[in-house]
Amino acid sequence: MNWVENISTWLWGPPLIILLLVTGIYLTFLLGFFQFRYPLYIFQQTFGSVFKKPKGKGTVTPLQALTSALSATVGAANIVGVPAAIMFGGPGAIFWMWVIALIGMSIKFSECVLAVRYREKNAEGEYVGGPMYYMTKGLNMKWLGVWFAFALMIELIPSIMVQGNAVSSAVYETFNINPLYTGIATAILVGLVVLGGIKRIGRVTEVVVPFMALIYVGAALIILFMNLNLVPDVLSLIFSYAFQPMAALGGFAGAAVAETIRWGFARGLYSNEAGLGTAPIAHAAATTDHPVRQGLWAIIGIVVDTLVICSASAFVILSSGVWTGENAMNNPSGLTSAAFAQYFGQAGSILVTVSLIFFVVSTIVVIIFFGSKQAEFLFGLKAGELIKYVYLIAIVFGATGGARALWQFLDIALAAILIPNVIAILLLSKEVKRLKTEFFTSDLYYRKDIREKRDKKAS
After folding, report:
1. C-alpha span between 94 and 83 (Å, rounded)
2. Distances 76 to 218, 260, 289, 359, 369 between C-alpha atoms, Å
3. Residue 286, beta-bridge partner list
4. Which of 1, 136, 291, 418 would be a feasible disulfide site paired with 113, CB 3.0-4.6 Å?
5. CA atoms 211, 176, 187, 164: torsion sign
6. 252 three-state secondary structure
């Protein structure tokens, strides 16, 4: 199996990092650096409009679409991926994680805009969309849409098994419960949600995702306020070692600048999944009056996922000093738990475990929905329902260790999804630009929002 690991390591090294970096920079220029020009407006139209009735047509609210998309991205990468980036790339890797998040916003915005632009209604009257639809309708390349849909549908089986294994391992480590029982309980819990369709998934995720993110980030903020004097030191570590190699320090083995950039970019992309084509499937169901308005919610997804949650993990790990501990390199994935335990004792370790369980279970819920939409696109509505049961069985197999031989194929399978999606985004980038220009210059959207806000202030 060495060849699989070698191909995977090579693919997720320079080739895919360069592809995503170049795509992100190109789209940022093409769209006029809009993510940097309109930050206040983006926040007003997303979190600022949570309690307002959404405009336009759709199946779920924009917030439900965002929390569904976030459920798929907020997970093990935020808790386990961040310490791995620090241990193998040094503290400077966090800087490059932020850079790829800012550039990746243009990719995620573009794919979500296209998903809403080319969405359609299924036999149950629900709005459905995503890469397979914009490849088929926007590019007239049904074969590419079929490739994407089939690759994602199959890739999700080992992916769900790995997630099931993460839950059962975390529960076994903390509470000593048999992995089989955890697997069955997880499958039943997930089944109750996913068999209810996107509306039930939306209702569950809009409660669970903000709740679990607030608890995890809230605990990190308490640590931040307990250690305000360490903030300049942590920021100094991140910024100074983003551009220079770092020597070995305690259990940290040192890192060259190239490794720092590679690990920052790779973990950042793993975390926010810009370009992977999964988030657009959730955003396509949103109630909106224009594709660009929903694209703004996709940008907020990266802010929450990478700039807030990953940064919270990074601060706790760097301020606690656990990354320089004697055996830190032997178990990077356990560092977040060790850091929280240092501040809160056993309660800190339990907090990380419970957060991980919530993050991973909500991830499983949403990626099963993604998989069912691929089966529906390929084979019809009944196949979409049937494959949900295949995925639920995969949770149990994964929980008992059935995924260990399959996890190496995951990265290759992800590349088989990412590459066609990025090609499609680039080929349709002029349509994204047209929609973005229409939204920001038309009197029906941006200008109307600004005028209404001005009139409200005047009155």
Report:
1. 10
2. 18, 20, 34, 7, 19
3. 60
4. 291
5. positive
6. strand
> What is the residue type of 135?
M
- Our count of domains for the chain comes to 1
Q: Directed axis angle between helix 429-441 and helix 407-427, to 10°? A: 60
pLDDT digits (tens, 9 = 90+) for 199-240: 888 888 888 878 888 888 899 999 988 888 999 999 999 999
- Provide the CATH number for the domain around residue 419: 1.20.1740
DSSP secondary structure of 137-168 = IISS-HHHHHHHHHHHHHHHHHHHHHHHHHHH
Residue 12, exposed/middle/buried by CB under 10 A (0-12, 13-18, 19+)? buried
Cα-Cα end-to-end distance for the chain: 69
| Six token digits for residue 228 | 């305000």
Closest CA to 394 of 70, 153, 65, 37: 153
Cβ proximity of 35 and 303 under 8 Å: no
Q: pLDDT tens digit string along 106-138?
A: 999 999 999 999 999 988 888 999 999 999 999
Structure tokens of 3? 């060849």
Predicted pLDDT of residue 164: 85
Candidates 61, 62, 44, 68; CA nearest to 365 is 68
DSSP 53: P
Boundaries of domain holding 112: 2-458
pTM: 0.90
